[in-house]
Amino acid sequence: MAIGVVWYPPIDQQAYDAMREKVLQASLANGQQFHAAGEANGRWCIIEVWESRDGLERFIREDLAPAFGIVEPGHGELPLPELIFDVHAR
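Below the sequence we write its predicted C-alpha cells.
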C-alpha cells in the first residue's frame, strides 16, 4: 500500500537543494511516486508519496541520512518524518 509522508526537517532551502543534488540523480528516488517541498509557516516542509514503507525506510537509511550528515553535520541524526499515513486515494 502506498504511504504519504510529511517532514519538517531542520534545514533551509540552500541545505535542501544541496541534499537533493547529493541524493537524487533523477527527479524521484526509486519507489517514490511524488515529492514536493517549500516553506510553510517559517519551516521547510516536504510532502511525499511512496510505493511502500519499506522503500521509504531504505531510502532514509541508504541515501538520505548519509547526505544529511554531510550537508548538515552539526544537526545530529536526520529527524524522522512527523507524519506517515496510508494513502487512500491519489
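DSSP finds two helices and four strands in the chain.
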